[in-house]
Amino acid sequence: MERVGFVGMGTMGVAMAANVARAGFPLTVWNRTPGRAGPAVDLGATEVKTPRELAAASDVIVICVSDTPDVEAALFGPDGVAAGARPGSFVIDCSTISPSASRGFAERLRAQGVGFVDAPVSGGSEGAQKATLTIFVGGSEADFERSKAVLGAMGKTINRMGPVGAGQAAKAVNQVILAGAYLGVAEGIVLGIKAGLDPEQLVQALSGGAARSWVLENRSGRMIANDYPLGFKTSLHLKDLNIALELARQVGAALPIAAIVSQIETGLVAQGHADEDMSSVARTIRALSGLEG
Q1: Cα torsion at 24, 144, 130, 177 (round to 10°)?
Q2: How far apart are CA 196 and CA 210, in angstroms?
Q3: Are 238 and 266 in contact (CB under 8 A)?
């Protein structure tokens, strides 16, 4: 069984790493801020002080951090993964970054004999904890096959979308669709409240018809209560959506709904709601509709 290193012990990463440990992989972990790896360490993982040390102890290195500069720093910064990785080792990047950045990182690693796939995930903190994530993979067929055992410890639906960068492109599509779903549910809930309907009864009725969706079933309650505990940070969805909008500019696609949601989320971040769940888009719809709170 291959030795796995896991870089990034955020809300998603620590849960994903714990599932890798539960699957029986020998696990080494690192996080920029010490003290976040407890759940993985409790399951037998070894915590180290640098990504370089982690890479030297690993056959497969998984990265799950917030943004492109964080991935680059983990890979190529002082004492980064690239400094410790041996030829024949392999990087799985589960972060959500731009497709072009993924291709550039793959080329740099390939020059020293290290493999790479981009494998961004969807499913939120619940999916990370339950190992039911959907994972979009970009890379060669051979690299995809090698990644499947480790990815299978973290996710349930794992698909190769094409060469390096294709996983990130698929994740961008995912985030665009989610933008419309969250905004649509928020508008529907607010309309129902303003029209005098019982919102809980409304959700129950809608869930039996064509409006049924994961967002309606799992996030409408937060929109009704106007309370948005963390599932997936608004600031991170905004980052992902801006990646999608940049990709759209590159390929010539029009994304009017995604652009609207980007503006709504920009406002929410500016108002101090960056760390709330992205269902907080309902805050804006409620405010524009004159609802209290």
Answers
A1: 170
A2: 22
A3: yes
The CATH fold of domain 169-288: N-(1-d-carboxylethyl)-l-norvaline Dehydrogenase; domain 2 (1.10.1040)
Q: What's the CA angle centered on 117, arms 113 and 120, to 5 degrees?
A: 150
Any catalytic annotation for residue 148?
Answer: no
d(CA 48, CA 27): 11
* Cβ(134)–Cβ(94) below 8 Å: no
- Give mean pLDDT in consecutive 10-residue pieces for the chain, a chain of 293 residues: 96 96 98 92 96 98 96 97 97 97 98 98 92 98 96 98 98 98 98 98 98 96 96 94 97 98 98 97 98 76
Identify the architecture of domain 4-162 in CATH.
Answer: 3-Layer(aba) Sandwich (3.40)
Which residue in the list 49, 130, 171, 239 is annotated as catalytic?
171
